[in-house]
């Protein structure tokens, strides 16, 4: 059974930085894709970043490109999300996700991921 445990959320001011981590266990990460999504109250779950474990290619939506960076630590089966220049609209619950059959065209889709963490709250105040 795959388990994903997020950490690192919190409350910050506009322009601050925050780093999230997601530790995976229960299965080798080889051939997986891992991603971060976020969901604000009343909104749909939104894609934030993804990384392929093999090769390390990364993907971002325009809303966070240049501000957020996803990375992986292969030895620790951990994915990090470094968030810089945070804005109030970045406030949401952030979820880590993992999948082993994620094709490139679906890497931004929540439906492509089979395993999810419990979420961690990020609040950005102006």
Characterize the structure shown:
0% of the residues lie in helices and 48% in strands. With 126 residues, it is mainly beta. The strands form two sheets. Strands 2, 4, 5, 6, 9, 10 and 11 form a seven-stranded mixed beta sheet that branches. The protein has a four-stranded antiparallel beta sheet with strand order 1-3-8-7, with no helix packed on it. The radius of gyration is 13 Å and the shape is globular.
Topology:
Layout: E1 3-7, E2 10-13, E3 18-25, E4 33-39, E5 46-52, E6 58-59, E7 68-73, E8 78-83, E9 92-99, E10 115-116, E11 120-125
Approximate shape: globular
Work out the oligomeric state of the chains in this entry.
Answer: single chain
Unreliable runs: none
H/E element sequence: EEEEEEEEEEE
Q: How many β strands by DSSP?
A: 11
Total of helices: 0
Structure classification? mainly beta
Strand content: over 45%
Average pLDDT works out at 96
> What summary fits the major beta sheet?
7 strands, mixed
CA-atom Rg in angstroms: 13 Å
| Percentage of residues in helical conformation | under 10%
- What is the straight-line distance between the termini? 40 Å
